[in-house]
Specification:
With 360 residues, the chain is an alpha/beta fold. It has 10 helices and 14 strands. The chain binds 4'-deoxy-4'-aminopyridoxal-5'-phosphate. 4'-deoxy-4'-aminopyridoxal-5'-phosphate (PMP) binds next to helix 3.
Amino acid sequence: MRKIIFNAGPAVLPEIVLAQASEGILNVNNEGISIAEISHRSQLFKSILEETLHLIRELGAIGTDHEVILMQGGARLQFAQIPMNFLSKESKAGFIDTGYWAHKAMEYAAYYGQTDIIASSQEKQYRHIPNTLDFKSTKGYAYIHLTSNNTIYGTQFHQIPVVESPLIIDMSSDVFSRVMDYSKIEFAYACAQKNIGPAGLSIAIVKKEFLARAHTQLPPVFSYQLLAAKKSNYYTPPVLATYISLLNLRWLKAQGGVSAIEALNAQKAKALYAEIDRNTLFENHVQTEDRSLMNVCFTMSLSDLEQQFITFCEKHNIIGIKGHKVTGGIRASIYNAQTMDNVQQLIQVMQAFEEKCINK
Ligand code: PMP
């Protein structure tokens, strides 16, 4: 029996996508060859890549003033590649510190140039998104970096702040989960393993004007300008991850695209938070208006009880709900491919566990 998967990433993929991927592993497009065997210079892969880039543009309503780039590796590679391209010892990048990943992005940037914290919610254990009124001046930076959804803390920017320097956003855990105006964003990036496809791939959506400012004296594998000019087919791309991502993006389009999935995501999160707020055993500590619609994090009064709940979930076929090691607690990741049925199953198990504890 297939498990009910609440992993934070790599995360659940639609079953139909997995079935199509399995077919492609044996015989892609009926060509008599596996997707794992085709050349990245073949016409078939070129058409897979082209359709993937096209679908990203279509789903994100991304105009011709932006380039879309697909790359090997995950978000941490981007933490390094971004400052390699856009920062120097003479310039400074500003960071909105909303927790572990936001902070890591800054630590990586510090290898290449100066960094500065524009705002932070550290003093409140990252349980809220910093208010723009508390931001330091955002003028004069090479770029300002923020993390739109904080996978570990379960917080999310529901409004993207207006800043006075180029804006770079790590959208790893909420890309394509909601409609976004990319025209206001110089550089958006995401690892694939949450809302796009399997691990091994990252995407970047870069304003051409900003791309023109990138350094060129760097190893070609790291040069965004070069990767864009080569249409994401310079080094051998992650062929399999790209193919499965394409299947998943086709699935997203068939669901009605990003606005349709956004409405469904809101319903899933609403149902789950309502149960946490109602259930006497669970608590969510995030400032209500900053609650993430992707990663629902909660705790129980006794950590011993948390382990019992996780085991209880496993008995009911539910996996992947243990919180990140830095926060502990419980986390249910409800990305695009998570179904409302699965969320309802988790809610029922939360109710059954409450019943069990009360009647003990
Ligand atoms: N940024 C965010 C928001 C994340 O959630 C993660 C991973 N969970 C990362 C960066 C790091 O991604 P990777 O493991 O692909 O380097």
